[in-house]
Design brief:
Keywords: Signal, Transport
GO molecular function: ATPase-coupled transmembrane transporter activity
CATH topology of the largest domain: D-Maltodextrin-Binding Protein, domain 2
Number of strands: 10
Family: Belongs to the bacterial solute-binding protein SsuA/TauA family.
Distance between the termini: 56 Å
Structural class: alpha/beta
Function: Part of a binding-protein-dependent transport system for aliphatic sulfonates. Putative binding protein.
CATH superfamily of the largest domain: Periplasmic binding protein-like II
Subcellular location: Periplasm
Length: 324
């Protein structure tokens, strides 16, 4: 019964957003980007080069911050943003709920940038020790899949723990109060908890998940304005190259925006994957495995086809971008 209720609530998270109205057709004069407190979009926003480049074409860029991937995809669903970045799992639940979204690019794996944490004084020493415990996580987020995989690897299932679904800020408060036994979270919240709370990691994503970051757009916007999407991905890729070449400079730039110390920010910056690219068949297959896993767990109601929601830019649009 709990599995059925969980499935309905996860899918409802996105279906409710769709019920407020269809995705509105975005205007070419504006690109509305949804971002989270991590990742390359934060770096791109700080750099300001995208705004300058698109301003030459009369396109204004606006930014909206979201606490997590599921909430960001709700924004895409209701038409409040045109483009955003999330972890692996939110797009699966969004697709299951009928969201009209397209995967447009991905970042290389970053499995160490998410983990299952316990308080520094906890007696828990392995994932197997989580049986019967309360675990905080953001429902439908990338760490949801990490928890499922980690439990499976330890011979358990999601039904062996009590999930406590909270966004990052509320989850941290519950973690500090001792209201939950563990917290599954991503950077920079992960790095902050490790350094500020001396939280201990039971397991990160290594050997379990890729933790790809995916860039998504509403289908209407991507199809009508492929040149804008291509420019955006080019700029994201450029910021990634800057980050790999000089992480300290990027840290100094981004730390004030995140409200975190340079020491915490540097850890998160270095653990991130950089190099946005169009999705490869191997990445599509990996994402399909995630979708199939949640279908088997009955957390989504039907089998999905990830390859059906992959964006392929028109050749003409690519050529025009290359000439700019």
């Amino acid at each position: 019964m709990r599995t059925i209720t969980l499935r309905r609530s996860l899918v409802a998270l996105f279906a409710a957003a769709i019920s407020f109205g269809a995705i509105t057709q975005a205007q070419a004069e504006e690109l509305r980007i949804g971002y989270q407190k991590y990742g390359t979009l934060v770096l791109l926003k700080a750099k300001g080069t995208l705004e300058k480049r698109l301003a030459e074409q009369g396109v204004k860029v606006t930014w909206t911050e979201f606490p997590g991937g599921p909430q960001l995809l709700e924004g895409l669903n209701v038409g409040s943003v045109d483009f955003g970045v999330t972890g692996e799992t939110p797009p699966v639940f969004a697709q299951a709920a009928g969201a009209d979204l397209l995967y447009v690019a991905y970042e290389p794996p970053a499995p160490t940038s998410e983990a299952i944490l316990v308080p520094k004084g906890s007696s828990l020493s392995s994932v197997a020790d989580l049986k019967g415990k309360k675990v905080a996580l953001n429902k439908g987020s990338n760490v949801h899949y990490l928890l499922v995989r980690a439990l499976e690897d330890a011979g358990l299932s999601i039904s062996d723990v009590t999930p406590v679904y909270l966004p990052p800020a509320d989850a941290r408060a519950a973690f500090e109060r001792g209201s939950v036994d563990a917290w599954v979270i991503w950077d920079p919240f992960l790095a902050a908890a490790e350094q500020q709370l001396q939280a201990r990691s039971l397991r990160n994503g290594e050997g379990l998940v890729d933790n790809h970051q995916f860039y998504l757009a509403t289908r209407p916007y991507a199809q009508k304005h492929p040149q804008v999407i291509n420019i955006l991905i080019e700029e994201v890729r450029g910021v990634g190259e800057d980050s790999k070449a000089d992480p300290d400079a990027v840290t100094a730039q981004v730390a004030p925006l995140l409200g975190l110390s340079p020491e915490i920010t540097r850890v998160a910056v270095k653990r991130q994957g950089y190099g946005a690219q169009p999705l490869t068949p191997a990445v599509v297959q990996a994402q399909q495995k995630i979708a199939d896993t949640f279908t088997e767990l009955r957390l989504i109601p039907k089998k999905l086809s990830i390859k059906d929601v992959i964006w392929t830019p028109p050749v003409g649009a690519l050529a025009k971008v290359a000439q700019q």
